[in-house]
Amino acid sequence: MNGFWHQVRTVLVRDLRRERRTAEVLGVTIPFGATAIVLIGFVLSANSDTLAKAGPAILWGVIFLFGTLVAVRRTAAETPAQRDMLALTGADPGAMWVGQAAASAVFLIVFEVIVGLVGFLFLGFSVPMWWSVPIVVILVGIGLAALGTLAGWIAHDLETGTALVPLIVAPLAIPLLLGASKTLDVLITNRGILRWIVLMLMVDLVVIIIGVLAARPLQENP
Amino acid sequence: MNQSQATVRVFRGVDVLTVALLLVGIVLSFTSPPDRIQGDLTRMIYLHVGSVVAAYVAFALTALGSLLYVITRRASFDRLAAASAEVGVILFGVVIVVGMIWGQTTWGSFWVWDARLTMSAVMFFVYLGYLALRRAIPNPETRANRSAVLGVVALAMIPITHFSVVWWNSLHQGATILSPASPKIEGEMAFALLTVMLAMQFLLVSLVRRRMQIAKLEDAALEVAVGSDGFVAGDAVQIPQMGGAS
């Protein structure tokens, strides 16, 4: 088990290093998402009340659509040669999958925080129960990262992979989107959020379990 | 009579029963009493509900076929998954179209952003994605392997779509026959509905079986084509020999 987590950490550190070198998420996707928030607010040209009401929906829409780009970023994809080499070293495919998903989760959480702040500033909505926001952000980040990584593994090396992955991820991420938007709604109206948290937690767990179990067959039969 | 002949007879029986049940279902859906409020419009329920139940079963078969393929690596299970997904998507398309027509006549709009409707559309897209993935991969083994994973994940959408009416406030009607309380449907209408639902299950079996047969023939044709015209990549490489190649 120690070997498993050591491999997870190695893949995670490798992906973080790749991001430090390329700045694909921090330098490209995050500014792109923030621009989308500003553009949507500008195009709507609504009054501040309407924007504040529609704000959470706009924010989550942008986070889910652009978050998919984070999860399937080019630097997360391995070439067939890299995959073969990792397989020959005896690396556990499950550990590789978890490591990649963990790196994506880190990027997605950073993405959510920065784009969320932009949304908060430009769309002007308020959230009274701030303490629970980190839980939602973390659960969405983990779920979307797990789904994106799984879809990336399913569609790797395919000519239509770039279009196919969002088509796979976006509909499957809907339970997370519903959980996240409903949680924000009930946070604003000060009602219970537990069942939405449980829904997101369930989605995260199911996708992680399937991802770990499917990693070996996906790697061994490319 | 060998096993293959027996199977053919069984499925021929299923085909005959499908046609008979569909005819009875059509007659019952037009002769059952109209609804007190919606009148004859309510007859759309027979096609709408009958198709949706069959589509759910088809998607469950996709997941089952995918899971069994992962365990056994038998191509027939992959064909089951693919065939049931195709039939399920068509049936679900019927559900959405009939639902939209019904919505226009009762709610005054083809589409409302309702939990059940939205989740249904999302589920439709999940399986369109599944079929798109299959089309994108030419190698049969790779296709079967990767789509099996997606087939299992996609199953999670069915309970979420079905229970969306319970979890969120919805314009869409809740459970009718499978209501936690007593069934909210009149006896004659319930009988017609159950007959159509049964007929649609038989139709599903017939269509999936036919599609699996076609897929098997396609696979055989592909094997013949590769065997006759194709070449093995390794042919270009010669085994190194002592003293150089002859």
UniProtKB/TrEMBL annotation, chain B:
One of its GO terms (molecular function) is heme binding. Keywords: Cytochrome c-type biogenesis, Lyase, Membrane, Transmembrane, Transmembrane helix. One of its GO terms (cellular component) is plasma membrane. The keyword Lyase applies. Residues 12-172 form the Cytochrome c assembly protein domain. GO terms for biological process: cytochrome complex assembly. It holds the Pfam family Cytochrom_C_asm. Coiled coil: none annotated. InterPro entries: Cyt_c_assembly, Cyt_c_biogenesis_CcmC, Cyt_c_biogenesis_CcsA/CcmC. Its main location: membrane. It is found in: Membrane. It is a multi-pass membrane protein. PANTHER family: CYTOCHROME B_B6 PROTEIN-RELATED, HEME EXPORTER PROTEIN C. Belongs to the CcmC/CycZ/HelC family. This is Cytochrome c-type biogenesis protein CcmC, putative heme lyase for CcmE. It comes from hydrothermal vent metagenome. The lineage of its organism: unclassified sequences, metagenomes, ecological metagenomes.
